[in-house]
Design goal:
The chain has 2 helices and 5 strands. The chain has helices at residues 66-80, 98-107, and strands at residues 41-47, 56-60, 84-87, 90-94, 111-114. Strand 1 (41-47) and strand 2 form a beta hairpin. It has a single domain, classed as Translation Initiation Factor Eif1, CATH 3.30.780.10. A 5-stranded mixed β-sheet has the order 3-4-2-1-5, with helices on one face. It has 117 residues and is an alpha+beta fold. The termini are far apart.
Length: 117
């Protein structure tokens, strides 16, 4: 059974229903199975574009749900002792922490490598 939603903006093609028991079913399935750490191919790079010259460590290539991505991002931010964010398959860690992040991810069983400069 599909998920019920009351968001009228996502109801494309449905104008009105006279049925009393009509329930709009969202057909988009956004749940992505998270790959195990050994099958993840994570790339760690330094990024400073569009950030007013500030450096961030960017971890890209995560395949899985947003919740698992945020959990991994939270663990990395705690271990590095800095802030950051996790969304859209990317984790941003404030500052240049490429070596530390690489060691943390490899210790956790992830396949990770540094790329870029």
């Amino acid at each position: 059974m599909a998920k019920k939603t009351n968001d009228w903006k996502k109801r494309e093609g449905i104008v009105y229903s006279t049925s009393d028991d009509f329930e709009f079913e969202d057909s988009s399935d956004e749940s992505t199975d998270t790959l195990p750490p050994a099958q993840q191919n994570l790339k760690i790079m330094l990024d400073k574009k569009a950030r007013a010259g500030k450096k961030v460590t960017l971890i890209d290539g995560f395949v899985g749900s947003e919740d698992d991505l945020k959990e991994l991002g939270k663990m990395l931010k705690n271990k590095c002792g800095v802030g950051g964010s996790a969304k859209d398959g990317e984790i941003l860690i404030q500052g240049d922490h490429r070596e530390k992040v690489l060691q943390i991810l490899q210790a956790a069983g992830y396949k990770a490598k540094k790329s870029g400069g």
